[in-house]
Amino acid sequence: MKRILYLLLLSLAVLSYGLPASGESPGRDTGGMPVPPLPEGDYSWMENIRKEHPRMFLTADDIPQICKTAETFENGTYLSMKKRIDDLIGSPVTFPDSLAATGESNRNHEWGYRASEAAMLYLITGDPVYLVFTKYVLRELTAYYQLRIDNNLNISWYVFSQICALCAYDWIYNDLSEDERDGLGQSLYRAMYGIAWHGGGVRKARFRENVSDFRSGCYGPAVLPWYLGLTFYGDGVDDGACREMVMKGYDLHQKMVAFRASMIGEKGGGVTACAQYTLGYYPYAEYDFIYTFMSATGIDITEKMDYLLGLLTYMDWVMLPGNREYGFGDVHHYNCLLPHRDMNAHLSELANLFGPTHPEIIPVVQRMGKSLTERRPYDGIPFLRLLHKFDPGAMKTKASARNVTAEQSIYFDTMGQLYMRSGTGEDDTYALFVSGGVPTQHKHYDNNNFIVYKHGYRAVDSGTRPEPGLHLTHYYCRTVAHNCITIRMPGEQFPEYWGGPAANEPKDVPIPNDGGQRELLASKIMQYDETPEYVYIASDATGSYHEDKARLVMREFIWFKPDLFLVFDRVESTRAEYPKAWLFHTVAEPEMITDMEWRETSDGGATVCRTLFPEDAVLEKIGGEGKDFWSDGRNWPLPVLTPDDYGYSKRHIIPPPDHPQIGHWRVEVKPGKPSGKDYFMNIFQVGDTSLKRLPETPVFEDESSMGVSFVYGKHRYTVTFDKDKDYGCDIKTERK
């Protein structure tokens, strides 16, 4: 009886909601916001847009398969969704702090997710309680949207929850009365139109509104016209505006697809080389477009977007044991975790969309899926997995995962990252070398940087990302925080980086002169070779430095498999008196073995490093309390944050000051006397804590060349560098 009474009360509430006054239209008259002019182009595909509902992400023909998926391999997704909604039914829908400065400061926007979940449950079960609850949530959610629009406030940084609310309306459309379509439908349209971004100058911008172009995540209100137009297309709400929004949305997504396809590069990649972004929420823009284009038109566009397979390759190589990442760019070094729960969803989506036509990806998906087992409570679009037609984990295919020992390095040219690994296990060696690339988003001044991982971070990217905080702008992004070369020219002024001081930090603090780089890109791989025994890289980062101080900054980086590294740097400054330094950052304090050799242990692993040249080099340890983030004569510690710093968000949690993964020590190698041209040669090995010493390394030098020989593994190596060239190396390998 309570269930029946609840249905009746909610039905009455929805029927009485939001009927527009006679003659009122939510279309052209939407708060004085004009619809952009009709774009030019080929839109012949629009003739295929379905007149019937549902058409957002799914059609009526898809429902039997959705029911089957919910009963079988995605039964866990279904049951979790059902529990979330069942726990809410019978309780009021509320929006605390509804006029907060940003919708991100609370979870009110998540009611859009709940609306789509309730509607999905109705499609699967046919139970009218879910239909009525969907109407109730949409009614209250629309009123909340309108309240924030009337006060020029955002809904959320991401538009996913609003897309889900539109899906909910589309999916229950056939069970709405004419009055409900007029009242609930037009009010929802009007609110969504006010949320959507229709171009500059149309309305005022909003605080924390993610208005960005096709080169970014494409998950803000700029993409909403596509979904809003499709939802109401041809329904008589405002057909002209809907048509124009669909066309505008299509154009935006085509630009996004073209840009993202170009960013995949020769071997793979993503929108940006910062994994937190490219492997987080960014790919949902593509999935959502594919699903909605196909469901609305019946046209399969997956093969036109098969560049997404390169995302899978990139995802494969950026992974470290324990779902960690290398720490490249603006990532939080609290635990250096990849967005592995999102990557779990990406594996599933890529397998569903491309597995049938590209069965070779299934073994890779299955291998990676063994480590990416953790899921979010619900994905960026919580119902997507229920649209899948097969379980990739159970698929059998004649194709096999590639032999990871056959290919132990890969250069992602657009990302500017060269990855190396001895395998994909807990005991393997992993390295990243930074050079080249296209995107500058969230990239640091770190050209020719290297990061090495074995039983923890052996050569670490130091610092972390407080937001706000001078640590980010004055240390973390700078060359001094990376394993690079510095050349200090007195009086040099460096470019600013995004971000600013915390509330209790001074304003207008000059950028420190760390002696580092001033260009985010401007480096280039000159030579890259892989043999069964080693990987050789030559990279020119000269253009990254001020032309008034640097004539040549060339690094030759050699990885002798599986865990020995030789780094040779040719550095020529415009003036001999400009100090040069070679930097190596560690998690724990290095222990000096000799004046030219040190050892560091942390996280169950060890590094031993020896300086071979300059022969008169001076090694200095810098770090520890009060000097752990030292640059230009002072420390740049993590800020002590106050409520004023997080008035809009609490998501940027920073680690305690003594947290090891942010790296508190570095070794600086400096020439013993000033010189215009210097050669740095350093050899280091990584391993577990049983690693105590390096091989013997006799060196040699004459007027035209210099080098080193050593025995490692089953080979004797003699490595000779040509001093008369900007780069050039001869590696002789002899079996012992």
The global form is elongated
Walk across the major sheet and give the strand order: 7-8-9-10-19-14-13-12
Count of helix runs:
15
In total, how many beta strands? 23
Oligomer: single chain
Low-confidence stretches: 1-40, 401-405
What distance lies between the first and last C-alpha atoms, to the nearest angstrom?
A: 86 Å
| Percent in helix | 25-40%
The overall pLDDT average reads 91
- Given helix and strand content, the structural type is alpha+beta
Largest β-sheet summary? 8 strands, antiparallel
The radius of gyration is: 29 Å
Could you tell me the strand content as a percent range?
15-25%
Describe the 3D structure.
α1 (2-15) runs parallel beside α5 (128-150) and α13 runs antiparallel to α14. Residues 1-40 and 401-405 have low confidence and may be disordered. The protein has helices at 2-15, 63-71, 75-88, 111-125, 128-150, 160-172, 178-195, 224-232, 239-264, 275-278, 284-297, 309-318, 340-354, 362-369, 470-476, and strands spanning 409-412, 417-421, 430-434, 450-453, 457-459, 485-487, 524-530, 534-540, 550-560, 564-573, 580-586, 591-594, 597-602, 605-613, 618-623, 630-631, 634-635, 665-670, 677-688, 699-701, 705-712, 715-722, 729-735. An eight-stranded antiparallel beta sheet has the order 7-8-9-10-19-14-13-12, with no helix packed on it. It has 15 helices and 23 strands. 51% of the residues are buried. It has 736 residues and is an alpha+beta fold. Helices cover 27% and strands 19% of the residues. The radius of gyration is 29 Å and the shape is elongated.
